[in-house]
Fold:
Amino acid sequence: MRKIILDVDTGSDDAVAIMAAILSPDIQLEAVCSVDGNKDIDKTTENTLRVVQLLGSDVPVYRGCRAPLVKFLCPDRLPRRGESKPIVKDGKVIQMHADYLDIPAAEIKEQPISAPEFYVQYLRQATEPVTIVAVGPLTNVAMALMMDGTVMDKIEEIVIMGGGYNITNVTPTAEFNIWHDPEAAQFIVHCGAKVTLVPLDATHAACITLDDCERFRKLGTVSGDFAAALCEQRIAVHDDSQPLAVPHAAAVHDALCIAYLIDPTVLKDVREVHCDIGFRDFSEGQTILDPRYYTEEKNCRFAFDGDRFKFVDILCDLFARDKKSGR
Ligand code: BDR
Ligand code: CA
Structure:
């Protein structure tokens, strides 16, 4: 069974990823770390605890960094967050990410040490390799590996939801997770670990439709119901302001990273690339792929495509394992 630490800025698609990781029999989820990103750290931590509690899991949750490494120190690098436009449907305001997930408030508590401290302590003591799956900005992971570089050999792979080649979402050149903390991302893509980037090119191809939501709901489980509601909320926002090539569909980015651990062929056209991150002006947060095959060494694997049918089948198998919702 593959051991993983999941790093999240929960977040609607982060929530789907957390549920998938908890339910997978192929994954041993060691911890979930929150980070500043979609929302501030209080909200992403509370939302993470809510999802863990909903599934009745005892996985520990660690509160992570409350700001990117450098960006918020630079007054010229605004805005701070990339909010998508809320819409109103049947009198209800729908956002890509509500401030708080619409499930019971957390009664379970976060752990007493911070996420970067946890990474260092965990990795120092690890006797088996662990995979880090980071589906928010890379602040915690970069901070931890800056604190102690000797733990690198304990990391099997770092799987990152981030970046885009032909598709971006927060600026003409950048995807949100990388744009929010570009310095952390640059540190991680060059840290020497096996790094797999799951960018927007893959997550938009592996989109989820309204029909897929029906499949989730028909399972009659807690996670199936909640995933259906979250994906429908995302589809409503995509339909309104960012329609995908497939009608009535949404990217559910973060969960694709979990699906990749279960079946790597859910990512298609995965190429070894040399990737750098832009820091400023038009290139801020851009994943810059060097087209000169003869110059730089390759430092990342980059997925240019994804398989949406496989992705939905994997999620259905996972959500079917959950307790019945009794609705
Ligand atoms: C990424 O940014 C966040 O809004 C999502 O949770 C996802 O991790 C997509 O760009
Ligand atoms: Ca996320």
Q: What stands out?
A: Residues 222-241 form the longest helix (20 residues). The pocket of calcium ion (ligand 2) is lined by residues 9, 11, 13-14, 38, 135-136, 254 (CB under 6 Å).
